[in-house]
Amino acid sequence: MSKPIVAVVGRPNVGKSTLFNKLAGDRISIVEDTPGVTRDRIYAEVEWLTHKFTLIDTGGIEPDSEDIIVKQMRRQAEIAIETADVIVFIVDGREGIVAADYEVATMLRKCKKPVELVVNKLDNISLEENKYEFYNLGIGDPIAISASQGLGLGDMLDEIVENFNTSDDSVENETDIKVAIIGKPNAGKSSLLNNLSGEERAIVSDVPGTTRDAIDSYVQFGEEKFLFIDTAGIRRKSKVSEEVERYSVLRAITSIERADVCVIMIDATKGVTEQDEKIAGLAHEAGRASVIVVNKWDLIEKNDKTMNEFTDKVRCDLAFMPYAPIVFISAKTGQRVNKLIDVIKFVAEKHNMRIKTGVLNEVISEAVMMKQPPVEKGKPLKIYYVTQVSTKPPTFVFFVNYTNIVHFSYQRYLENQLRQHFGLEGTPIKIIYREKKDD
């Protein structure tokens, strides 16, 4: 199942970005004293105890402002509210309640989702009593924190993750192969979905950005059931001016999170663009199996070298995911769409592949004999033992004498050996190194 989404909302300058950075463990959002600095939602993966969730930092809400930037930030927050499983409503404990807080509280009460009221900037015990004023918002029990000092964050996170255990009536069947169709607007995502499902489930238009939301379609091919998630197209930031397009980006990211396999749509008439690279990077970083689909191949003038030349270009531009197979199709005519189904099934199997520990160690021992590890800092690398700890993606732990002497080139060699021996095509793999000293 996908990770829960937690949205941090509130009016400008109450400390949302400071809290976000503290939880994300990095200075991702710009933090300034000027209200309204955070213009775009920022996303991060957060882990607390045994729970993992996606955290969204939003622009501030000022319900009565007609300022265009504030209106956009308000819409961003509304979008985050629509999408989130849990909402963290931050208020300023030093300033106290202001009129905008009441209006934001009214918005949140209508959303019928769990809301945690967090009173920020309570930097010492003498200020903690300030939180009681916020009972007047009618949101629930206020939680006192200081985001800048890191005070009270454990109690706040405990309350947040308590909400993750609620039942979900729309639980997806874990045996289905979940496929996110991602790509720029007008790359042919909706046409592909309609071809696969055999009906007009998604609006097909030549106007980029027609698909505003993620559309789920259950399709069965033979014995296999697929859940296809058609996402709204992801645009370049400079073109994401319409608030609904910001929503599209969020939906695409959450769709990738839900998926086992990402179908990355490339428009053959335009080639691989910088935005295509970024979209593919989202799937790669999320650890999803991927298939690169070059669509509109019927519109390309071809000779006997065209496909090979285009493949070389894709491999060069998407060099970070050499494992992803490339399929040339026409979603409009149906050319090679059946082949795509077989490739999706294949990469889904590899993504979920588990390898016996004995066989794994035999392969790595042989690989080390064939190519000895380089000596780093005067120390030879020793690999004692290898085990697979999880799937989706296949994740391996290598127990070595020193983790700081594992050279990048040798890491790549070991990964290539795993791929060659076990046919791990279509899926990223993750290798973790842990120290185990000689007895």
UniProtKB/TrEMBL annotation:
Keyword terms: GTP-binding, Nucleotide-binding, Repeat, Ribosome biogenesis
Biological process according to GO: ribosome biogenesis
Quaternary context: Associates with the 50S ribosomal subunit.
Cited CDD domains: EngA1 (cd01894), EngA2 (cd01895)
Family that this chain belongs to: Belongs to the TRAFAC class TrmE-Era-EngA-EngB-Septin-like GTPase superfamily. EngA (Der) GTPase family.
Molecular functions per Gene Ontology: GTP binding; ribosome binding
Claim: GTP-binding is one of the keywords in the record: yes
Family annotation (InterPro entries): G_ENGA, GTP-bd, GTPase_Der, KH_dom-like, KH_dom-like_a/b, P-loop_NTPase, Small_GTP-bd
Descriptive protein name: GTPase Der
Positions bound to GTP 1: 10-17, 57-61, 120-123
Domain EngA-type G: 4-168, 177-352
Binding annotation for GTP 2: 183-190, 230-234, 295-298
Phylogenetic placement of the source organism: Bacteria, Bacillati, Bacillota, Clostridia, Eubacteriales
Keyword Coiled coil tagged: no
Function: GTPase that plays an essential role in the late steps of ribosome biogenesis.
